[in-house]
From TrEMBL:
<dbReference type="GO" id="GO:0046872">
    <property type="term" value="F:metal ion binding"/>
</dbReference>
<dbReference type="Pfam" id="PF00459">
    <property type="entry name" value="Inositol_P"/>
</dbReference>
<comment type="function">
    <text>Converts adenosine 3'-phosphate 5'-phosphosulfate (PAPS) to adenosine 5'-phosphosulfate (APS) and 3'(2')-phosphoadenosine 5'-phosphate (PAP) to AMP.</text>
</comment>
<feature type="binding site">
    <location>
        <position position="328"/>
    </location>
    <ligand>
        <name>Mg(2+)</name>
    </ligand>
</feature>
<comment type="pathway">
    <text>Signal transduction; phosphatidylinositol signaling pathway.</text>
</comment>
<feature type="binding site">
    <location>
        <position position="176"/>
    </location>
    <ligand>
        <name>Mg(2+)</name>
    </ligand>
</feature>
<keyword id="KW-0479">Metal-binding</keyword>
<dbReference type="InterPro" id="IPR000760">
    <property type="entry name" value="Inositol_monophosphatase-like"/>
</dbReference>
<dbReference type="InterPro" id="IPR006239">
    <property type="entry name" value="DPNP"/>
</dbReference>
<feature type="binding site">
    <location>
        <position position="178"/>
    </location>
    <ligand>
        <name>Mg(2+)</name>
    </ligand>
</feature>
<dbReference type="GO" id="GO:0008441">
    <property type="term" value="F:3'(2'),5'-bisphosphate nucleotidase activity"/>
</dbReference>
<dbReference type="InterPro" id="IPR020550">
    <property type="entry name" value="Inositol_monophosphatase_CS"/>
</dbReference>
<dbReference type="GO" id="GO:0004441">
    <property type="term" value="F:inositol-1,4-bisphosphate 1-phosphatase activity"/>
</dbReference>
<protein>
    <recommendedName>
        <fullName>3'(2'),5'-bisphosphate nucleotidase</fullName>
        <ecNumber>3.1.3.7</ecNumber>
    </recommendedName>
</protein>
<dbReference type="InterPro" id="IPR051090">
    <property type="entry name" value="Inositol_monoP_superfamily"/>
</dbReference>
<comment type="similarity">
    <text>Belongs to the inositol monophosphatase superfamily.</text>
</comment>
<keyword id="KW-0511">Multifunctional enzyme</keyword>
Amino acid sequence: MSASIGHNPFLLRINSTNQLPISKLKFPFRFSVSTTPARNRTFASMSYDTQLAAAKKASSLAARLCQKVQKALLQADVQSKSDKSPVTVADYGSQAIISFILQKELPSIPFSLVAEEDSDDLRKEESRETLHRITELVNETLASDGISPLSEEQVLVAIDKGVSEGGPHGQHWVLDPIDGTKGFVRGDQYAIALALLDEGKVVLGVLACPNLPLASIAKRDESISEDKTGCLFFAKLNAGTYMQNLDGSSPTKVHVSDIENSEEASFFESYEAAHSSHDLSSLIAKKLGVKAPAVRIDSQAKYGALSRGDGAIYLRFPRKGYREKIWDHAAGYIVVAEAGGVASDAAGNPLDFSKGRYLDLDTGIIVTNHKLMPALLKAVQESIKEKVSSL
Ligand SMILES: Nc1ncnc2c1ncn2[C@@H]1O[C@H](COP(=O)(O)O)[C@@H](OP(=O)(O)O)[C@H]1O
Ligand SMILES: [Mg+2]
Ligand SMILES: [Mg+2]
Ligand SMILES: [Mg+2]
């Protein structure tokens, strides 16, 4: 793993392999409050209310930190020049806050966290100033909620709780502290994405999207820039999906688009062509007769926007060999599923979050409503075949 600290104290460039030394693996924990063995419990019997409240609090505080850093980044006019995945002090700060708050709010539940970042680079001598800045940011954010400050070591320990491997047994939090870091650095969309796995299934998810307008982004007039932004989506198994203002308004229930005619559908995809083939998605859209141009935005904000019907389809086709990580999809997946949507890989298999830190997938991820899925799947499979045979 390597990292170099740029001129701006808010930005770190990092080259992460996501490989973890065996010595860092955490024993998978069971939910200890219940006296029933985990495998015998039914998901319906669990309410997950305390976990959801803790997840909402943790994500909202992390969003506060991210908003502050993004403002500073933009004022400093930093640009992402490297083709390596950027990591900012906000990625680390967000992970530290969420890890710390979840443990603080849920003291009686054994804690297992599968998260994107680790502190290996931050522990290096050359990162001292950065660690100091991260700790300062974390403490300013915690103070705004009346929480006592953490030491630099406590910040590192909180970040490193994220080394869990997840898996099919017990409960595991799944965290992307900033999803869409490239969008974050550009001043565009990003999300703080937190989900809970229980026995390998996603049972709750929270998506904080500080730059997403509260109003629909479908057919938005780009010239109107004073749209209110900052959405918090949350979903619990069998309990629906809700959206509220990040500042804490009362939640409203959301539902995916009920469009049946694919010609009327619009679709989301990654802003970054390196993350998802824009060529393949345009071929699929053509086959479906989609008229609207692709809506390209960063991060799981796409899942949030889809869950409230801003668009009807999300297409993601990474280059061959890319392995999707569970934190890039777990929260978004349940937010869409509980809003009446469906996600699968390109072969129509459901997404399986029980396999550890990665998703095992056939080719890509497609998300839509139940009515459009059969036609979408057909168009996807035909398009993939055509693309492969034309190579
Ligand atoms: N070559 C690649 N193909 C597909 N996804 C990639 C990728 N390189 C990075 N990503 C993932 O794409 C995520 C952003 O998704 P999106 O394209 O929807 O904005 C990144 O999350 P992070 O920003 O958390 O690192 C990263 O995990
Ligand atoms: Mg990243
Ligand atoms: Mg991500
Ligand atoms: Mg991330």
